[in-house]
Task: inverse folding
């Protein structure tokens, strides 16, 4: 029983160790973000898994907006893509691209791309900028978050991570877990996924055990 239990737990422990190592290198926890919307399509689609790092981690230190000269490319376009968590009740973290930095009291529409702007400073709640921060947007949205009312000016302390690269489709499990938690709660979801993982591991161990037994049987007959 101890041996079987160890065999079932080994894959989970290995995954946890990999996550811990990646987090230590990236300087962020969790070091992965599951994409839940298509706002960064086509480079990042719903269900992708994005590897993230701390915003001040070497050699990716600092935040650079798309409008800045020499801005690094992330997901095929200029500017850093960041994960930020507005303090609004019920709003999940957002992963969007930084357009440019703004200062308190600034009419930032003067520097905005007209193609990403709906209205002027008189009609946009986030203008003039009420404090120092960043204007952001989703690549697929076609409008600044602050113009569309998706988010206020993003304070630097709201930014929790910087995106590095995406792995297609590996985030669906996380998306499924979040959906299950939202529907039935944390404990029932944990029991359900835990039971599924245990059953999958048990069947896998049984299958591999039978293969090993057959192989040993063939070896003994060959002798």
Result:
């Amino acid at each position: 029983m101890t041996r079987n239990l160890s065999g079932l737990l080994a894959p989970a422990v290995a995954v946890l160790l990999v996550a811990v190592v990646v987090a230590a290198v990236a300087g962020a926890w969790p070091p992965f973000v599951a994409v839940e919307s298509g706002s960064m399509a086509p480079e990042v689609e719903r269900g992708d898994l994005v590897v993230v790092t701390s915003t001040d981690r070497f050699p990716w230190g600092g935040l650079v907006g798309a409008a800045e000269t020499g801005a690094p490319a992330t997901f095929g376009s200029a500017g850093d893509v960041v994960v930020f968590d507005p303090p609004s009740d019920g709003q999940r973290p957002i992963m969007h691209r930084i357009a440019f930095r703004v200062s308190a009291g600034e009419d930032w529409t003067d520097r905005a791309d007209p193609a990403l702007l709906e209205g002027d400073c008189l009609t946009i709640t986030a203008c003039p900028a009420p404090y120092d921060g960043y204007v952001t947007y989703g690549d697929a949205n076609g409008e600044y978050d602050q113009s569309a009312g998706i988010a206020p000016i993003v304070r630097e302390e709201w930014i929790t991570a910087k995106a590095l690269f995406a792995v297609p489709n590996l985030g669906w499990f996380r998306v499924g877990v979040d959906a299950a938690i939202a529907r039935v709660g944390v404990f029932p979801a944990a029991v359900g996924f835990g039971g599924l993982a245990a059953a999958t591991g048990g069947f896998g161990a049984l299958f591999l055990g039978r293969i090993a037994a057959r192989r040993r049987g063939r070896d003994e007959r060959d002798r």
